[in-house]
Amino acid sequence: MILRLHLFLSLELVLGFDCSHIIKARGLFGGLWVCWKKSAQVHVINNDPQFKLFVTFVYGSPDKRLRSFLWERLDHLAHSIKDPWVLLGDFNSFLFPD
Question: Where are the domains of the chain?
Fold first, then answer.
C-alpha cells in the first residue's frame, strides 16, 4: 500500500496537482482518487463507503444544435437519478442573452 500511495503522490505532482484525497477500494470496487490545485477550495466533509453520490462532468458544444441533445440527455438523467447528483461543467449556454 505504501508503494501505491507513493505512486499516486508522484502522479499527482507530474499531472500538476497540489492536493488529493484517496478513498480506498474494497477489493476491486469503490476506489476513488480526486486531485485538485491549491487555488481551488476543496473540503472533504464525509468519507463514508455507504454514501452514494453521482457526479456528471459536462462540456456543452458551442453549436446550439448539438447542445440541444445534451439538454435532452441531462433532462433524462435528472428524472432517472434518485440519489444525490452533482452536475459540473462548461455548458456553453446562457440564462439570459445579454
Answer: 1-39, 52-98
Neighbours of 27 (CB within 10 A): 6
Q: Pairing relation of β-strands 19-23 and 54-59?
A: unpaired
Q: pLDDT of 24-44, one tens digit each?
A: 877 777 778 888 888 888 888
Residues facing 19 on adjacent strands:
36
CB 79, CB 49: distance < 8 Å: no
Q: How would DSSP label each residue in 50-73?
A: T---EEEEEE--SSHHHHHHHHHH
Q: How does strand 32-36 pair with strand 19-23?
A: antiparallel
CB 19 within 8 A of CB 36: yes
The DSSP 8-state label assigned to residue 57 in this structure reads E
pLDDT in tens, 48-83: 767 778 888 888 888 888 888 888 999 999 999 888
* Amino acid in the structure at residue 57: F
